[in-house]
């Protein structure tokens, strides 16, 4: 008789905007073929080069509210005046296939996942400093100065929540941060 398939893990990668979550996640996904990214839904405007269903599922506010009302979201949050969230069934399907699922989400959403799926692996990516985070946000040139300031104010609050996470990875050296996240995922698989 064959062994039942092991369920995958839910890996939550969170932290302030501009901290490098996306870069770290891309590297992890490139290295492991048994880890998949949960594509979030959002109401924010599509940025140049993004494709619906690849980076995000772009929804209207009305569509997003309907998804919440129908109980289709594992987590959701309003961040910088836009809705963001994760589809519950998509995550469940992948972990039942034995794949680890990465959720690259906002801190508010990470707390919801922690409540609903306490066995999740929660990793907070921290910047070396707020000054460095500001440099990164300005350098990306995707937001207005007002939005950058709003994101920095939110980041200050998010950094106060690190004690709620089992793992905190400081991204002051990208290669080391990626390696640390890889090791966390591999060590958690053995448990």
Q: What attributes does this structure have?
A:
191 residues, alpha/beta, five-stranded parallel beta sheet, four-stranded mixed beta sheet
Draw up the topology in text:
Blueprint: E1 10-14, H1 21-31, E2 35-37, E3 41-42, E4 57-58, H2 61-69, E5 73-79, E6 82-87, H3 88-96, E7 100-104, H4 107-116, E8 121-126, H5 130-140, H6 145-159, E9 167-170, H7 174-190
Parallel strand pairs: 1-7, 1-8, 2-7, 3-4, 8-9
Antiparallel strand pairs: 3-6, 5-6
Helix pairs in contact: 1-7, 5-6
Report on the structure:
It is globular, with a radius of gyration of 16 Å. The model has no long low-confidence stretch (mean pLDDT about 90). The longest helix is centred in the C-terminal third of the chain and has 17 residues, at about 175-190. It is of the alpha/beta class. Strands 2-7-1-8-9 form a five-stranded parallel beta sheet, with helices on both faces. It has a four-stranded mixed beta sheet with strand order 4-3-6-5. The chain has seven helices and nine strands, in the order βαβββαββαβαβααβα. Helix 1 (about 20-30) packs across helix 7 and helix 5 packs antiparallel against helix 6. Strand 5 (about 75-80) and strand 6 (about 80-85) form a beta hairpin.
For the largest beta sheet, what order do the strands appear in spatially?
2-7-1-8-9
Helix segment count? 7
* Mean pLDDT across every amino acid position: 91
Q: Judging from the principal axes of the Cα atoms, what is the shape? A: globular
Unreliable spans:
none
Query: Which percent band covers the strand fraction?
Result: 15-25%
The major sheet is characterized as: 5 strands, parallel
Structural class estimated from helices and strands:
alpha/beta
Helix content: 40-55%
Q: Would you count the extended β strands for me?
A: 9
What is the end-to-end distance?
24 Å
The secondary-structure element order is EHEEEHEEHEHEHHEH
What is the radius of gyration computed over CA atoms, rounded to a whole number of angstroms? 16 Å
């Amino acid at each position: 008789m064959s062994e039942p398939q092991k369920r995958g893990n839910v890996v939550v990668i969170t932290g302030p905007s501009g901290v490098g979550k996306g870069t770290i996640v891309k590297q992890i996904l490139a290295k492991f073929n048994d880890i998949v990214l949960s594509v979030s839904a959002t109401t924010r405007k599509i940025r140049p080069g993004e494709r619906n269903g690849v980076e995000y599922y772009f929804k209207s506010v009305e569509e997003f509210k309907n998804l919440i009302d129908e109980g289709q979201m594992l987590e959701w949050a309003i961040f910088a005046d836009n809705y963001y969230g994760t589809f519950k069934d998509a995550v469940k399907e992948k972990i039942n296939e034995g794949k680890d699922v990465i959720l690259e989400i906002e801190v508010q959403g990470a707390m919801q996942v922690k409540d609903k799926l306490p066995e999740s692996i929660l990793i907070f990516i921290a910047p070396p400093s707020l000054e460095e985070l500001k440099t990164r946000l300005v350098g990306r040139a995707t937001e207005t100065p007002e939005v950058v300031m709003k994101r920095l104010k939110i980041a200050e609050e998010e950094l106060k929540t690190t004690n709620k996470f089992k793992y905190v990875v400081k991204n002051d050296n990208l290669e080391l941060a990626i390696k640390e996240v890889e090791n966390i995922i591999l060590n958690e698989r053995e448990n």
